[in-house]
Amino acid sequence: MRLRAPVVPPRRRFDGPVTTIEARDLRKRYGRTVAVENLSFTVKPGVVTGFVGPNGAGKSTTLRLILGLDSPDAGCALIGGRPYRALRTPLRSVGALLDAGAVHPGRTAHDHLLWLAQSNGLPRRRVREVLDLVGLGSVARRRAGRFSLGMRQRLGIAGALLGDAPVLIFDEPVNGLDPDGVHWARHLLRGLAAEGRTVLVSSHLLSELADTAHHLIVIGRGRLLADASVADLLADASRRHGGQRPSLEQAYFDLTRAAVEYREAGSDAR
Ligand SMILES: Nc1ncnc2c1ncn2[C@@H]1O[C@H](COP(=O)(O)OP(=O)(O)OP(=O)(O)O)[C@@H](O)[C@H]1O
User: For the chain, what is the domain count?
Assistant: First the structure.
């Protein structure tokens, strides 16, 4: 089914607290596999920050550590200076889309969001608001099990927006969206940042972020490779390529070339 592209609402200045996401010397290993090693960065409000790296770089692990779904072996992850598990109203503090498939297939889109809203003390009216915002208003009473991948993705985005949080984290948000949907999602993410929110978007495909992100955090083999604005990354790459104008993709390949293989603990003396 083809959904009408939802209208991105006019910008409003977000008047909630200014909040950052911080990773401080994060380390996580699974057996001999290094997932994340000495990883530190700060994600600031007002811009879309892309979180990129090759497959197996440690992006999902980092997001799970930030969202308190896993515990680090060392270091810490903070949202507004607190670990996720210490947040008193988590969904009002941080909205996240990690796995769009994590919806009971027998529940309607409306009931899924209502359940989320009620279990987080959020007003019922937010359900209708976010359904309209993501363009699912007309299929609100349809069971999520009958949704296409793109519709499930929109439902996941709706869940992340439910708490009107100052911090938003999206893992592969355009996965399964058609070109209209991708265009809409880009505007949505940029709009949320323009409202003054902190927006972190993870992807293993730079092309998905090239027109969206203002700033990039690049990781490979669990380590930080770059934490810079898109403009600075392009300027650096241009210097490396003798003044030519390389694409952002070329800049990314330069950074990640040596980091595309998985690594076991102790197998690399870097
Ligand atoms: N629960 C786990 N048990 C064992 N190894 C794990 C576990 N979770 C992640 N890993 C390993 O940690 C490394 C980092 O994985 P992670 O999923 O965080 O990377 P990613 O950057 O999200 O990759 P992708 O882009 O493919 O989703 C990989 O080598 C992965 O196999």
Answer: 1
**Which of 70, 59, 67 shows the shortest CA–CA distance to 219?**
59
Ligand 1 centroid, distance to 218 Cα (angstroms): 16
Q: What's this model's pTM, rounded to 2 decimal places?
A: 0.89
Instruction: List the domain range (segments joined by +) for residue 100.
Output: 21-259
Q: Does residue 159 fall inside a structural domain?
A: yes
Give the closest residue to 5 by CA, choosing from 129, 145, 132, 153: 132
58 CB less than 6 Å from ligand 1? yes
Q: What ipTM score was computed for the predicted complex, to two decimals?
A: 0.96
Ligand 1 in contact with 159 (CB < 6 A)? no
**CATH number for the domain that contains residue 116:** 3.40.50.300
Task: Report the chain's mean pLDDT, rounded to a whole number.
Answer: 87
Asked, for residue 6, whether it belongs to a domain, the answer is no
* CA nearest ligand 1 atom 7, residue: 30
Residue 137, classed as helix, strand or coil, is helix
